[in-house]
Each structure stands twice: as C-alpha cells, then as structure tokens.
Design a protein that fits this description.
Blueprint (H helix, E strand, L loop, with lengths): L6 E5 L6 H12 L2 E4 H15 L6 H10 L2 E6 L2 E6 L2 E2 L7 H10 L3 H15 L4 E5 L2 H5 L5 E6 L2 H14 L6 H17 L12 E4 L5 H16 L2
Helix pairs in contact: 1-9, 2-4, 2-5, 3-5, 7-8
The protein binds 2'-deoxycytidine-5'-monophosphate (DC).
Length: 226
C-alpha cells in the first residue's frame, strides 16, 4: 500500500462519464481527484491569453513547465487556479475543448504535465483521470479503469452539459467535434488514447452514474481486501 492509499486511474474518451465518476469516487474514498484534462485545458487557456501560437511547440512546452497552476479540492470537484486566478469555468468552453486537444499533441507539453502529475499522484490516495493515466503516467497504478460510451451518447451528454450552463449548442456539431477529437487523441504519436494494460473496461452508455460508481467501488473494495 502506498503512503496515502490506492492509486486509481480512470481513462477514456471525452464524454464517457470520467469526470463525474472520478469526482464521486474520490469523494467517497476521501482521495484526491487529479483532473489532468484541466491541466491541458489550462495550458491552452494560458497560451491563448498570452497570444502564443499553437504551432510554437517550444513556447507551449515552456508555458507548461513554468506556469503557476494549482488544483485545489473544492466542494464536489476541483478548483483550477492559473496564476492565482480561478479559471475553473473559463477552461470549459468549446474553444478550449478544441485548443486543449491541440496542445495535448505537443511532446514538450506532455512531458511537463506528466512530471507534475507523477509528483501529485505517486503517494497514492488519488483518483487520476485523463487519457494516458494507466498507460503512460501511472503504469504501476493499483487499479485501472477505462470508461467508454458510444459517440452519440457522449454527444448528448455534452449537449446537456453545455445547455445547463446556458450555452448555445448544436448536437450535430458536437458529435462531429467528438469524432474528430477522438481521432486526434487516438492517433497522436505520443501517449495516444489506448486501453491501458490491465484496465477494467466499462461501457457507460446504458448506465446511470450511480451504477457506474457502484461497479467501480466494488472493484476498489476487492482491491483493499486483497
Ligand atoms: O478530459 P478533458 O476533456 O478535460 O481533456 C482535455 C483535452 O486534454 C482532451 O483533448 C484530451 C487531452 N488530455 C490528454 O491528452 N491527456 C490527459 N491525461 C488528459 C487530457
């Protein structure tokens, strides 16, 4: 056992339900929720604000190494502080969806963020959520999950999420974006989205978040009683 508890990873494509489940799982175990997507999103937001070109890999990597980024537990999730400013909402727009997927392809950005993630996660007591948690950043994790769902279900979830924030959204456009983002995440040369070795795969298409959470908790209990 690690110093602070199990190291649990949750990977999968956008809209598979990872964030909802990772937050709830971390809360029910009293673990830290490590939202690594928020880190890629923060690099994208910081680059946009600074006017850094998304072609300039050197500058993006430097930004990822040097920016002041903190993830603080808050309520039922995490508060993202970029240079001290709460950007939790600002990083969750369709534009940042797209730009974060671009910065996630830059090797220097991945190296910088992976190093930060390892530091935060290695003592355990963590639910690490992302695309390469179980495959690349924490191959030694105690328990690995891979959540998935059909593109149509994922697009509907995203639509509901945007609408609940009062943002205008179009289902067909969201679906097309999801398909394009999946392709980019799966085909990139470095740390592509794959089912990590040893991961438990769960299709959440026909399941409620509560059902998925219970499935995961059963696996966790099994692991804790090993
Ligand atoms: O999970 P999310 O939608 O917040 O992630 C934002 C982007 O960052 C998405 O394009 C995938 C990418 N990402 C990644 O490449 N590796 C991670 N560990 C987490 C996110």
């Amino acid at each position: 056992m690690r110093a602070r508890g199990l190291l649990i990873t949750i990977d999968g494509p956008a809209g598979a339900g990872k964030s909802t489940i990772a937050k709830r799982l971390a809360a029910s175990l009293g673990y830290l929720y490590l939202d690594t997507g928020a880190m890629y999103r923060s690099v994208a937001l910081a680059a946009k604000r600074k006017g850094i070109s998304f072609q300039d890999e050197e500058a993006l990597a430097r930004l990822a190494r040097e920016m002041d980024l903190r993830l603080e537990p808050s309520g039922d999730g995490v508060r993202v502080l970029l240079e001290g400013e709460d950007v939790s909402e600002a990083i969750r727009t369709p534009e940042i969806d797209r730009l974060s997927s671009l910065v996630a392809q830059v090797p220097g950005v991945r190296a910088a963020l992976s190093a930060r993630q390892k530091e935060l996660g290695q003592e355990g007591g963590v639910v690490a959520e992302g695309r390469d948690m179980g495959s690349f950043v924490f191959p030694e994790a105690d328990l690995k999950f891979f959540l998935t769902a059909t593109p149509e279900v994922r697009a509907k979830r995203r639509l509901a999420q945007l609408e609940s924030k009062g943002l205008k959204a179009d289902y067909e456009k969201i679906l097309a974006d999801i398909v394009e983002r999946d392709k980019r995440d799966r085909e990139r040369k470095i740390a592509p989205l794959v089912v990590p070795e040893g991961a438990i795969v769960i299709d959440t298409s026909d399941k409620t978040p509560q059902e998925v959470l219970e499935l995961l908790l059963n696996h966790v209990k099994g692991k804790l009683h090993d």
